[in-house]
Amino acid sequence: MAFNRGNEGKQGSVARTIAKVAAVGIIAGAPLGLAVGTANAAPVNWDALAQCEASGNWGANTGNGYYGGLQFTQQTWNAYGGQGNPANASREQQIAVAERVAAGQGVANAWPSCSKRIGNYTGAAPKTAPAPQQRKAQPQQQRQAAPVQQAPVVQLAGSKSNPNGNYEIKAGDTLSKIADANKVAGGYQAIVEKNKDFLTNPDLIFPGDKILI
User: Coil, helix or strand for 210?
Assistant: First the structure.
């Protein structure tokens, strides 16, 4: 499945930031890795991010201007040391470039929507708090522990296909990408308005569904 606004504004902000970072690295005469700086942040779960951005397809190339599992633009890829087309690079090569992008821009800025869904730093699954130890029952006064109630599972509803749609959603698409690629006046908001009876959750759209653009 694909998520909306996962790359909203990403191409513009990323491109501008890249130009500034590359210029600073050249002027200072320092390697790009030093120019962007390093951060002692917890590791990012790149596989989860790729699942959100491109349905886990590290070779994604749908012709929408974003490539690979982490949906790089060619300009971002080149500026952070990538060679060739991101879609042709291995998973490990894409992660290496992504780590430099994260150091230069921050995960939340480079992948704003998907990083929120999986958490900016998801190197390890959150640990559940250990159950409180029960006190030993006194010989004359024993108590039974109250049953632990499980939190209800919240199901995230997705959008539906528009039978009158003229565009079929592809893997890796978001409404922002679709609007940019097809030069939709009004951007992704216009797409949402045209499909308001079907895009019940604009943040959750599915490959194969149709929308009106």
Answer: strand
CB-CB contact of 212 with 194 (8 Å): yes
70: tokens are 């982490």
Q: Is 170 exposed, middle or buried (0-12, 13-18, 19+ CB in 10 A)?
A: middle
Residue 87 DSSP code:
G
The rounded distance, in Å, linking the Cα atoms of 59 and 88 is: 6
Model confidence pLDDT, tens digit, residues 49-83: 999 999 999 999 999 999 999 999 999 999 999 99
pTM of the predicted model over 0.70? no
Instruction: Tell me how far CA of residue 150 lies from CA of 107, 144, 153, 156, 176, in angstroms.
Output: 32, 18, 9, 18, 37
* pLDDT tens sequence across 8-32: 444 444 444 434 433 333 333 333 3
Structure tokens at 91: 């998973």
Tokens of 151: 């939190």
Q: Report the Cα–Cα distance between both ends of the chain, in Å, rounded.
A: 19
pLDDT of 178 above 80: yes
CB-based contact 115:71 (threshold 8 Å) = no
CA atoms 184, 207, 61, 73: torsion sign = positive
Closest CA to 102 of 21, 204, 3, 172: 21
